Structures are given as C-alpha cells and as structure tokens.
Amino acid sequence: xxxxxxxxxxxxxxxxxxxxxxxxxxxxxxxxxxxxxxxxxxxxxxxxxxxxxxxxxxxxxxxxxxxxxxxxxxxxxxxxxxxxxxxxxxxxxxxxxxxxxxxxxxxxxxxxxxxxxxxxxxxxxxxxxxxxxxxxxxxxxxxxxxxxxxxxxxxxxxxxxxxxxxxxxxxxxxxxxxxxxxxxxxxxxxxxxxxxxxxxxxxxxxxxxxxxxxxxxxxxxxxxxxxxxxxxxxxxxxxxxxxxxxxxxxxxxxxxxxxxxxxxxxxxxxxxxxxxxxxxxxxxxxxxxxxxxxxxxxxxxxxxxxxxxxxxxxx
Length: 315
Prior knowledge:
Number of helices: 14
Mean pLDDT: 86
Low-confidence stretches: none
Distance between the termini: 53 Å
C-alpha cells in the first residue's frame, strides 16, 4: 500500500512539474483568454500613449538652411521641460487650478458627506427618491452640464439673473472675479452625488450592532454620525479626495464651454487647456511635456495625500 502511495505521489509531482513547464496547460490558456480583453486595450490605449507622450516630450523641432530651410525633429533632452518651467502661463494656470481645488474640493466633499449621512439617517424618509435625485447630475455629461449652467450664468438669457436683478442685486457670474467659482459650481453640481454615493455605500457596510451599542450608552444621532460613522468611513473619504484631486488637475470641459460666453477665460485658463492650445499650434512636443508635468504633479499630490492620511490614521 505504501509503494502505491509513493508511486501516485511521484506521478502527481511529475505531472505538476510538466504543467508548470508547459505554462499551466489548459488552465493557463483559459486565464489568458479572460485577461486578454482587458490587457490588450490597456496596453494600446493607456500604456502606448503614455510612452509616446514621454518620447515626444524629449524631442524638439530644429530648422536648417535659414528662414526657408527645412525643419526636422531630433532629441532635445530636457529642453521642452525647461520651457514649460519657464512658461509664466503654465504657472498661472497651476495657481488658478490650485486655488480652485483648495476651495472646491473640501466644499464638494463636505456637502457629499452631509448628504450621505442624511441618507443613512433613520430620520429621512423616501430615501430612494433623494438618492436618485442627488446622483442624477452625475449622469449628465460634463459638456452638457456646462452648457446648461452657461445659460443660467448668461446675463441676457438667465432667469436667475433676472430674478436677482428684480430684487436689486446685479450679479456677474462671468466676471473676472467670479468666473472661476462659476466653473467650480458646475463641477460641484456634477460630482457631489458621485462622491455621496461612495460614502453612502461605505455607511451601508457598518454593522447595525455598533449603532445599537452607542444608543444604549446614550449617544445621540449627532454623536453617532460624527464620532462613529465618519471615522469608520474615513478610507472612503480619502478615496473620494484622491479622485477629486485628480479630477481638479484634469479640469477642462467646464471652463472650455464657459469660454464661449466669457472673455475672462483664456485658452490657457487651466493646465489642460494650455496643453490643448499648444498642441493646436502644432507644437506637439511642448504639449507632451506639459501633459507629462501635469501627470507628475497629479501623482505627487495624490500619493502624498494618501501617505499623509495613512500616517495620521496609523496605517
């Protein structure tokens, strides 16, 4: 009996080694078949453009033979990046988007958190209606949302402006001091429901026994919300903050649409608009360098925020 067991073990071991040498056999083929539909578009539409943008950012256009000579593209090292860092319009757009994010992101996340807590509260009725209503703006494409709000901002068309002027107020939503916050309002309207849904989903995963124990200890709904719910869903709040940081640095659609009705938004209003404007002038290498710098700044801010919050949470 022992000999039979030893032989069976050796056969199984041999088959296992042969399967590993053959790449796992049919099972490996099945895994490959399932992963290919993901990895193929990922490589073609994500990794390849990134590599191409990096390659373009290190190239420059030279001209030989004087004014009427021919131009050619060659390796230029960090010349494009040097021009980016010495471009005052780039730093102006970074400063503008930084101010946008410092104000808009906390406001949006705070409103989303309040809405999530209200939806999770036993005091609120018809929760399904409010949940769908709050999430509905996210279903509207960003360009369409910006067009809708541009109608409400326009002094010639807006019923809101007419009502405010009727009570003695004369708002200028597209003025030089307000247009940035008008764009921020559109982003807040679009993304608050999305962030609310992430936080609300996290709240739904909290065991009810925790709430029951807190109520037995005499905790009010207010204390349960701020001292129990918010600390438990802190990872979700961090996640939505990271998403918001990334989205802020990618801001394009809202100011680009508002630019059609406001002269206070230039073609270099945000970093992404600057990259597009430079690329429209056929300076693809410079636009690639700007895009790479934006990506690096986005990574540093997002990763830095996650590291900072992880250290504070003791993770």
